[in-house]
Amino acid sequence: MNKVLCIEGYAARLYIERGQLVAVTGFPGEMQQIRFSRGRCEIDRILVRARAGTVSIDAFDWCARMGITLSFIASDSTLTNCLIADLPHDGPLKRAQAVTAITDDAVPLARMLLKSKLAACTEAITRDFAALSIGNRTARASAVAAISECSKGLDKDETLTQFLTREGYAAKEYWDLLTGTALPWPDWCLKRIPPHWAFISPRDSGGRNRVRDARDPFNGLLNWCYTLLEVETRIACASVGLDPDLGLLHVDDRLRESLVFDLLEPLRCDVDVAVFQFIKQRGLRPHMFIELRDGIVRLDPDLARDIAHHLMPRLRSKALHVANEYAKQLRRVKVPYRLVRAERKTIDGARRVESLSNCRYCQQQLPRRGLQFCDRQCYLSYSVEIARPIDKAQAKLAEMRAAGLSPGHGGEAAKKRGAKIAESNRRRSLGLPPAKTRARKAEQMRATAPDL
């Protein structure tokens, strides 16, 4: 069963009946009622794209207790609201996140995000665009060289304006390569669709001066898929304890969760590739899109549902990985507490601070003495990739067996096993019923217990 549920229609409902979650979705003549039980509920994402309907309070409570995220999405694919089940909070992490934006620690964090995005762009062009026949070899090589040059220039940049200038130039090279690529329409469809639907249009070709108001199918698909990515990134932020409002690259805005848009930047290329793979596999048909009177394109509900089922499971681990890496860097930030009286450090204490060790896996400096790893992830990676205790134990066991010294036979193991077998044989020879066997065992335990 798919883990994503899309609710559509003008009479959509989400309510509880006899302890079950009931979802009513669809349009008149095709209404569908779906029920979910607590013990067999496999969905963890509900996307509400309905233009009208109701959601009951007990349905909100049911979803919160089951860890299901409710996302309300408008017709233009903008995320209206995202209700996530309450997760453990991390006050020190959020405090470090708030302080970082006004300290020198913001520069390496912003550089890390942009470098990840540009690396994803070059990887997509080199690996995926060639397989999807996007651009020719010369154009792809030129775009990769230009984006790589932007990535190298980030090492010298120190301000937000410089960072965004590099990112804008790299984005232009990326979209210049995409623009003009033919979409997989059948020949009979080319006579029924507008001419500009047959190719990928520039990303800034939206109506009403808004990118969200796409006038072609591919950008309409990207709007919907970027919203799905926003939902997954929002959930990833809550999972690791980050505040979604406190971003770096996207400045603070009353109506925007800035950090969410910061963290989803490295994943946009993955979405672009996944969308092109999806439409190349499925093909495009005119009934998949709805053209409004002003030329703005919207997705058919069936297409929106299918691509959500295809894309969202692929984005979860990637979004969580980006959020974890960001939180890992934030935990290294030292936050000054003005209202806490700082203790004077002795000379020995100062020496101890200077002699902090490095993580045994990633080799980054640890925040305090006595630690060997940054976090559990580094410990597990070290155990699997470097320490390899299971392989060493198996090699030692093979060596002992070759020498006739297997720990499972002979020695103390044989004595213990022999004593257990002898005791079991004595109990069987007596032929006592279970009750008398338990009484005899209790008497033996009392006899051997030390006097208090």
Outline:
It contains 14 helices and 10 strands. With 452 residues, the chain is of the alpha/beta class. The strands form 3 sheets. Strands 1-5-7-8 form a 4-stranded mixed β-sheet, with helices on both faces. The protein has a 4-stranded mixed β-sheet with strand order 4-3-2-6, with helices on one face. A two-stranded antiparallel sheet has the order 9-10.
Describe this structure in words.
It is a single chain. The protein starts with a strand and ends with a helix. The chain has helices at residues 57-66, 91-100, 106-131, 137-153, 160-178, 217-240, 258-264, 268-282, 301-330, 347-354, 376-387, 389-402, 411-430, 434-448, and strands at residues 4-7, 12-17, 20-25, 32-36, 45-48, 53-55, 69-73, 79-83, 289-291, 297-299. It is globular. Among the domains are: 4-73, Ribosomal Protein L15, Chain: K, domain 2; 91-330, Four Helix Bundle (Hemerythrin (Met), subunit A), CATH 1.20.120.920. The model is unreliable at 347-353 (pLDDT under 50). Helix 3 runs antiparallel to helix 4 (137-153). It contains 14 helices and 10 strands.
How are the secondary structure elements laid out?
Blueprint: E1 4-7, E2 12-17, E3 20-25, E4 32-36, E5 45-48, E6 53-55, H1 57-66, E7 69-73, E8 79-83, H2 91-100, H3 106-131, H4 137-153, H5 160-178, H6 217-240, H7 258-264, H8 268-282, E9 289-291, E10 297-299, H9 301-330, H10 347-354, H11 376-387, H12 389-402, H13 411-430, H14 434-448
Parallel strand pairs: 1-5, 2-6, 5-7
Antiparallel strand pairs: 2-3, 3-4, 7-8, 9-10
Helix pairs in contact: 3-4, 3-5, 3-8, 4-5, 6-7, 6-8, 6-9, 8-9
